[in-house]
Design goal:
- With 405 residues, the chain is of the alpha/beta class.
- Helices cover 36% and strands 25% of the residues.
- The protein is built from 14 helices and 20 strands.
- The structure holds aspartic acid and magnesium ion (MG).
- The site of magnesium ion has 3 residues, from loops.
């Protein structure tokens, strides 16, 4: 088999750990497989570099930023190749450029356009272990680009797709994908497998095991991804295409997100074009809106609420104050102590009454629901942040997520 293994920052956080990774890589090779390894920078290293940049320029040039932050992975590929060689195996490290990872020109969040991978293929053919720098590529001008935070996951999945690897194994500091955060619910259960779509919902809701874009890529090219721990040999979680078994489970996981705030515009004139005006202005300010509700109008006026990322709180209030004046609304206010709690499962497509069970479970605990949104495989409720843990626990119990299907 051809296996792509990816090790995150914690797994290569110091020389001892790098030697551990080298051991694991060599064991896989000795089992008769071809191995390509993708690594992140040592934990904390990328943040350190970003911080350095901030000390010399308030608004660093994105091209120079990429030149800087791509160095973190350059350190770990070389160290890992040396550690593998010390164990008597042949290894060769490759930067994004050497691996032929071609991206677009959007510095600091570039998209991979294609992977030529000639030198990686050559190395494999010569019996070597190829060690590839995560997170980086080059654009058509051969400037270094990076793929956004957590981008090494994407590098691994994209290389697995390009080389048609049998598996893309993502080694991290947790040993799989759980039904929910085990810190909140000790009974949280590790899932044997999860569909790409469920994983996307979990990832975008802050269950930070895999970078969202890497899951989108895996889905598009049908790459089987396994999430595993680099600290033990436990079986992990397979992220794969949906199958009949998955449909039987009503809810696979419950996720929460405390990183949003709620904005309410009051006394909005209830006439065509007003919502368009509000949300066009917001999108013009590059703020991403998640949930939106509009109340029933009364006397030609209505209230409208929506959520945005917490990091945009200040910006959104500045923008909204102007919009409120322009459209002649009454006012705008911000509620910061909210949380979004969501249940996720492909089984929702074929089971009815799921929303009712969710709302009843929350009601029984006296938890008020401020906003609701649904998709085919997800129901989200915005609640008061102080009830987050309680809500997660109650939903985990209600849908019996501690029990295997
Ligand atoms: N080193 C980069 C980061 O910290 C990429 C990665 O670790 O996946 O975001
Ligand atoms: Mg990561």
């Amino acid at each position: 088999m051809l296996i792509v293994q990816k090790y995150g920052g914690t797994s290569v956080g110091n020389p001892e750990r790098i030697k551990n990774v080298a051991n694991r890589v060599c064991r896989t090779k000795e089992a008769g497989h071809d191995v390509v390894v993708v690594v992140s920078a040592m934990s904390g290293e990328t943040d350190k570099l970003i911080n350095l940049a901030a000390q010399v320029n308030d608004n660093p040039d994105p091209r120079e930023m990429d030149m800087l932050v791509s160095t973190g992975e350059r350190v770990t590929i070389a160290l890992l190749a040396m550690a593998i060689q010390a164990l008597g195996h042949q290894a060769q490290s490759f930067t994004g450029r050497q691996a032929g990872i071609i991206s677009d020109c959007v510095h600091t969040k570039a998209r991979i356009e294609k992977i030529t991978g000639e030198r990686v293929r050559e190395a494999i053919k010569e019996g070597k272990i190829a060690v590839v720098a995560g997170f980086q590529g080059i654009n058509e001008k051969s400037d270094v680009t990076t793929l956004g935070r957590g981008g090494s996951d994407l590098t691994a999945v994209a290389i697995a797709a390009a080389l048609k690897a049998d598996y893309c194994d993502i080694y991290t500091d947790v040993d799989g994908v759980y039904t929910t955060d085990p810190n909140i619910v000790p009974q949280a259960r590790k899932l044997d497998k999860i569909s790409y779509d469920e994983m996307l919902e979990m990832a975008s809701l802050g269950a930070k095991v895999l970078q969202t874009r890497s899951v989108e890529f895996a889905k598009k090219y049908n790459v089987p991804v396994r999430v595993l721990s680099s600290f033990n040999d436990n079986p992990g979680t397979l992220v794969t295409k949906e199958d009949a078994d998955m449909e039987k489970v009503v809810v696979s996981g419950v996720a929460y997100d405390k990183n949003q705030v709620k904005v309410t515009v009051t006394g909005v004139p209830d006439k065509p074009g007003v919502a368009a005006k509000i949300f066009n202005t917001i999108s013009g300010a590059n703020v991403i809106v998640d949930m939106i509700i509009q109340n029933i109008g009364e006397g030609g006026l209505t209230d409208m609420s929506f959520t945005v990322p917490r990091t945009d709180s200040k910006k959104i209030m500045e923008v909204m104050k102007k919009v409120v004046a322009e459209i002649g609304a009454k006012g705008v206010n911000l509620k910061e102590d909210i949380a979004k709690v969501s249940i996720i499962g492909v089984g929702m497509r074929s089971h009815s009454g799921v929303a009712a069970r969710m709302f009843s479970a929350l009601a029984k605990e006296g938890i008020n629901i401020m906003m609701i949104s649904t998709s085919e495989i997800k129901i989200s409720c915005v609640i008061d942040a102080k009830y987050t843990e309680l809500a997660v626990r109650v939903l985990h119990e209600t849908f019996e997520m501690d029990k295997a299907a």
